[in-house]
Amino acid sequence: xxxxxxxxxxxxxxxxxxxxxxxxxxxxxxxxxxxxxxxxxxxxxxxxxxxxxxxxxxxxxxxxxxxxxxxxxxxxxxxxxxxxxxxxxxxxxxxxxxxxxxxxxxxxxxxxxxxxxxxxxxxxxxxxxxxxxxxxxxxxxxxxxxxxxxxxxxxxxxxxxxxxxxxxxxxxxxxxxxxxxxxxxxxxxxxxxxxxxxxxxxxxxxxxxxxxxxxxxxxxxxxxxxxxxxxxxxxxxxxxxxxxxxxxxxxxxxxxxxxxxxxxxxxxxxxxxxxxxxxxxxxxxxxxxxxxxxxxxxxxxxxxxxxxxxxxxxxxxxxxxxxxxxxxxxxxxxxxxxxxxxxxxxxxxxxxxxxxxxxxxxxxxxxxxxxxxxxxxxxxxxxxxxxxxxxxxxxxxxxxxxxxxxxxxxxxxxxxxxxxxxxxxxxxxxxxxxxxxxxxxxxxx
Length: 445
Prior knowledge:
The protein is an alpha/beta fold. It has 2 domains: 3-58 and 370-423, Roll (Urease, subunit C, domain 1); 60-364, CATH 3.20.20.140. The chain is 36% helix and 21% strand. It has 14 helices and 17 strands. α2 (99-115) packs across α14 (429-444) and α4 (173-187) packs parallel to α5 (210-223). The radius of gyration is 21 Å and the shape is globular. The model has no long low-confidence stretch (mean pLDDT 96).
């Protein structure tokens, strides 16, 4: 039996049902599962991680990302554009990607997430140029060691048919559905503690047909997997839906079977009160991406109203070409600050924002085995050093989003150490960065 003891933590922010905050306690991990939480636990036969001077939280959970975009950060021409203009700038560059770019960008994005306290990430891959496949990202994630929720995205309506993407990046819908079946059968693990779960994710209302949206929903329910797409991201998005479909995005989603507790939508910046009520009644989840929404000028999502209505909300960093960073702890801080800017200083507390980043994300992804530090839950944990300069002077170490730090000291996924003393230990990040920069130079040339 593989055992690890996290010993004598300064504070453990459990995020359990009672929201307990423990001091001077230990966490015993056995075969990837938390078996005991309390003071003075027996360390016999266990690897010891000294947590004195550390705040321990559940690992953060990222509910929306486009990991392939990690190779296209800060691209000139797209830095100051709105969503549609930004996409038009990036599509021709992404069309030159292949399997290597997908693999390297995935590792780059996941390593960055790990250093920000993230133990579990979804990914929305919706373009497959030059032989690239979802398999490339799954292989990359397996080496890094984060829990992974890849989604088989797609685009099927190109410019010649009135869509936004170039025709070279779209696929035939019959082939899309066939590959969705293939990747679910090959990689999806529905069991407790699964390291890989696959979802289906047609890209957006402006890049796929209504028929593909409907067929993907039917297929997902037949296979028992989750559904994901973009929805109501900005004013352009709303205008497109009303012009093309004669309705708002919420009605579009409901008509096509895209509401329910097996569905989560990214952004939802422009949901109105009726749509929030729809999501609440149907159990539909939301991936809130505050930094990307700011970067693209999309607006402030009504997270306070969603939470008050009982909508499940998690956080997403979104693509590294629209953020352009991949720090989930920074997303949690930004989520808190934006609600305060919009609604007042008491609109969202530090603990609520961290709750959205942990057990909130777990709920959105359907992971009742993660997101909480409690006996029987998976051992996905972030240890934050609160003895350094970033936290010095703080009266409340659990108010992590106010005083820092912003990088983890240690990160554990399924009981396995992924970050140790501030460094990713599962892959060589220096070689990875050099390889990524070589690929970027080739793309630029």
